[in-house]
């Protein structure tokens, strides 16, 4: 009976031929697994290219250089950071997608990686097929802050003000499809309010605009806004993650202020080309997760205002799928665009 099933599957009337095809496929699969394992044993034996789809100097670049330096020290091979900015990270991501899948090209991607498939119709790659998640490196919580002149004391006050006086409030972001943009759009959707988005070319000009009251609200990571909050030039309203921040233990989260389930952040993770052999991916994932947990590494990540992570391939894959589901749902619901 089993032979008949196999004959129909291969579309032949020759059972012996079908069996040969099955055995041949098994042999090829076994050889590929063996080749992958052998490759992993000698990997890496030359330089690794670490693609960053953003300019030098930003958090993505800093984290990539930190991880790359530690990988180089651990494995005795150079790790060369290759900055490929542009196109909401698409240019650099495409470099990784089309690289030889041998573990010698990896990339440091962040939140827009999970959003771009839903807002761009002509991506040069398939986000799920052409990339293999390796490990989550860090997440950066957001702080919703506002210009002190706004007559509000908490998030509920802001929501009430936005509903009572449409058009009064605007919010700044460092640019389209940044975590500040996405986080505020999710909040607007959950609260049923309209606050106009004013994108700037980077976090510094956006921050300056909020302090000058050109716009009233801003969601950004702690390093950007904490000094201004402590100096009284901005007022902290809420933390965007599910948990409060140790640096501001009395500041409630968005979820605590009437929006259960709200949990946003900027995340950073390492990816490889989609067809990279599993043993190589496993070796990369284990080593990066180990390095992130070293005190000297985790302390430097924390100094960037980020929370060190480091997890398995399976855990990171699940994380990315959840992020794609969350932002994909929002993008379709509100017609999110990259400009």
List the helices and strands and how they pair.
Blueprint: H1 2-10, H2 15-42, E1 48-52, H3 59-75, E2 79-83, H4 90-97, E3 105-110, H5 112-119, E4 131-141, E5 143-146, H6 155-164, E6 170-173, H7 179-191, E7 196-199, H8 203-211, E8 217-220, H9 222-230, E9 235-239, E10 265-273, H10 278-292, H11 295-302, E11 307-308, H12 313-334
Parallel strand pairs: 1-2, 1-3, 6-7, 6-8
Antiparallel strand pairs: 3-10, 4-10, 4-11, 5-8, 5-9
Helix pairs in contact: 1-2, 2-10, 5-12
Sum this structure up briefly.
This protein has twelve helices and eleven strands.
Summarize the structure in words:
This protein has about 350 residues and is an alpha/beta fold. It has two domains: about 160 residues, D-Maltodextrin-Binding Protein, domain 2 (3-Layer(aba) Sandwich), CATH 3.40.190; about 120 residues, 3-Layer(aba) Sandwich (D-Maltodextrin-Binding Protein, domain 2), CATH 3.40.190. It contains twelve helices and eleven strands. The strands form two sheets. Strands 2-1-3-10-4-11 form a six-stranded mixed β-sheet, with helices on both faces. A five-stranded mixed β-sheet has the order 7-6-8-5-9. Strand 1, helix 3 and strand 2 form a beta-alpha-beta unit. The protein starts with a helix and ends in a 5-residue tail after the last helix.
């Amino acid at each position: 009976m089993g032979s008949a099933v196999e004959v129909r599957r291969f579309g032949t009337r020759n059972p012996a031929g079908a069996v040969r095809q099955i055995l041949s496929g098994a042999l090829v699969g076994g050889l590929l697994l063996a080749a992958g394992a052998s490759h992993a044993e000698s990997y890496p034996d030359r330089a690794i290219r670490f693609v960053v789809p953003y300019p030098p100097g930003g958090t993505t670049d800093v984290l990539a250089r930190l991880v790359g330096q530690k990988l180089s020290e651990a494995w005795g091979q150079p790790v060369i950071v290759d900055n490929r900015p542009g196109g909401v990270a698409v240019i650099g991501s495409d470099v990784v997608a089309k690289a030889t899948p041998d573990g010698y090209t990896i990339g440091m991607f962040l939140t827009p990686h999970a959003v771009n498939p839903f807002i761009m119709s002509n991506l040069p790659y398939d986000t799920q097929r052409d990339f293999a998640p390796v490990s989550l490196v860090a997440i950066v919580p957001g702080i919703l802050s506002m210009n002190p002149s706004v007559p509000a004391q908490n998030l509920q006050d802001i929501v009430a003000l936005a509903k009572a006086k449409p058009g009064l409030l605007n919010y700044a972001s460092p640019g389209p499809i940044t975590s500040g943009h996405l986080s505020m759009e999710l909040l607007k959707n959950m609260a049923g309010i309209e606050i106009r988005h004013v994108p700037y070319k980077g976090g510094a000009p956006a921050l300056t605009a909020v302090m000058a009251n050109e716009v009233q609200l801003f969601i950004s990571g702690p390093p950007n806004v904490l000094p201004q909050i402590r100096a009284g030039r901005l007022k902290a309203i809420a933390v965007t993650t599910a948990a409060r921040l140790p640096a501001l233990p009395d500041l409630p989260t968005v979820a605590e202020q009437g929006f259960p389930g709200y949990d946003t952040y900027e995340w950073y993770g390492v990816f490889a080309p989609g067809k990279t052999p599993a043993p190589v991916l496993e070796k990369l994932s284990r080593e990066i997760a180990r390095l992130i947990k070293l005190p000297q590494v985790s302390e430097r990540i924390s100094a960037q205002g980020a929370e060190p992570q480091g997890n398995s391939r399976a855990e990171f894959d699940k994380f990315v799928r959840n992020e794609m589901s969350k932002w994909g749902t929002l993008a379709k619901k509100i017609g999110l665009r990259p400009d």
